[in-house]
Write a structure and sequence with these properties.
The chain has one domain: Alpha-Beta Barrel (TIM Barrel), CATH 3.20.20. The chain has an 8-stranded mixed sheet with strand order 1-2-3-4-5-6-7-8. The chain is of the alpha/beta class. The protein contains 14 helices and 8 strands. It is globular. Helix 1 crosses helix 4 and helix 9 runs parallel beside helix 11. Helix 9 links the parallel strand 6 and strand 7.
């Protein structure tokens, strides 16, 4: 009954954010080998510093949504904690195992999420009778020894997991095709800091950046997944390209120079890497809503989308072997033309060097 008292306030915040700001769902936990309850909270900080100070990543349109929510003004500590407390009130009776916070940028950057908010959220998680894991996102430059040591100390016995968007193992692909603005050395430094402080790591891998062919994209995603798992990433979050407005990717899409990847390509990456560690398939819904998403033909796309959801609930890769479709022949022809090796030799750049992979195929 208490939750009903908060519904009018939740309605107001949902309208202000123009999206669902807090929700509960069940996700498969690879470590526990079962589904657990997750609380997801959208915390609209001041927005991604990288997007503000540069053109941002070529595929990301979330800056537009944050600007709409905050109307160009930084979110106050009071506003952020009010949203947190309201979201928390709506989880009563659910007993979530984990809390995932998305702020459209880096949680550890004080210009995006004030330190006082970071600390208080950690204290709230530590006091929770059910939450065992706090999951946040950050660019590697904000993963510092002092910050991780501080927040893990506040969490005490609870686990901190940090999701980093490595996206591609090649510095050239990450810089030119994605515009991420950091190197593999930066990623590795952040990984070591997390390990030192007994924090966990999730790694985003991006399938099909602009300028890469379908085949090149598959090979880069496979190499990146193997690389991240070899460094100790607890899981891989495979994100396939979809088109958001206001991005460079959208511009190329409108000009007929880019298409989202085939669903067959997502399956290929998972098939070649899932035996190395947990690999989850990211969804195709986001803010702002995409105008085009990965797909096959009209016949098999709905079936394969359902198989992606089923796979994520168990990580049983056999669920992705969901029959054959005539369009797969077209995909096979397309991915047979190029290999990533040709890109390595053709591009003359000192930052595009093959990265040694520590795991065998």
């Amino acid at each position: 009954m208490k939750n009903l008292l908060y519904l009018p306030f939740a309605f107001l915040i949902n309208n202000a954010l123009k999206l669902r700001f807090s929700y509960i769902n069940k996700v498969f936990n690879a470590e526990k080998k079962k589904r657990v309850i997750r609380w997801t909270l959208l915390l609209p900080g001041s927005g991604c510093a990288w997007a503000k100070n540069s053109a941002g990543c070529h595929m990301c349109g979330f800056k537009v949504k944050i600007d709409q929510v905050n109307r160009g003004k930084p979110a106050s500590i009071t506003k952020l904690m009010t949203i947190f407390q309201l979201g928390k009130s709506l989880t009563r009776g659910s007993s979530p195992y984990s809390l995932s916070i998305y702020n459209g940028g880096s949680f550890f950057n004080e210009e995006e999420i004030p330190l006082q908010v970071q600390e208080e959220i950690c204290r709230e998680v530590e006091r929770s009778s059910s939450i065992e894991q706090l999951i946040v996102e950050s660019r590697p430059e904000f993963v510092t020894d002092d910050r991780i040591e501080l927040l893990t100390s506040l969490l005490k016995r609870k686990k901190l997991r940090v999701a980093i968007g490595l996206e591609a193992v090649s510095d050239y692909v990450r810089e030119v095709c994605i515009n991420k603005g950091f190197s593999t050395d930066d990623y590795e430094r952040a990984v070591e800091i997390l390990k030192k402080n007994a924090a966990e790591l999730s790694t985003y891998v991006f399938l099909k950046p602009i300028y890469l062919s379908e085949q090149e994209s598959i090979e880069e995603a496979v190499r990146t997944t193997r690389y991240a798992l070899s460094l100790g990433s607890n899981e891989i979050l495979l994100e396939s390209a979809f088109i958001q407005q206001g991005t460079k990717m959208e511009k190329l899409y409108r000009e007929g120079e880019f298409q989202p990847p085939w669903l067959w390509s997502t399956i290929e990456v998972v098939r070649r890497t899932s035996h190395l560690g947990p690999v989850y398939i990211g969804g195709f819904e986001d803010e702002p809503p995409p105008i085009a998403i990965p797909h096959n033909c009209e016949v098999c796309s709905p079936r394969l989308m359902r198989s992606f959801r089923d796979y994520n609930e168990s990580l049983d890769v056999s669920l992705l072997h969901n029959g054959y479709c005539a369009c797969k022949t077209e995909w096979e022809r397309e991915v047979g033309y190029h290999s990533l090796d040709s890109l390595v030799t053709e591009v003359e750049s000192p930052i595009f060097q093959p990265v040694p992979i520590l795991l065998s195929t």
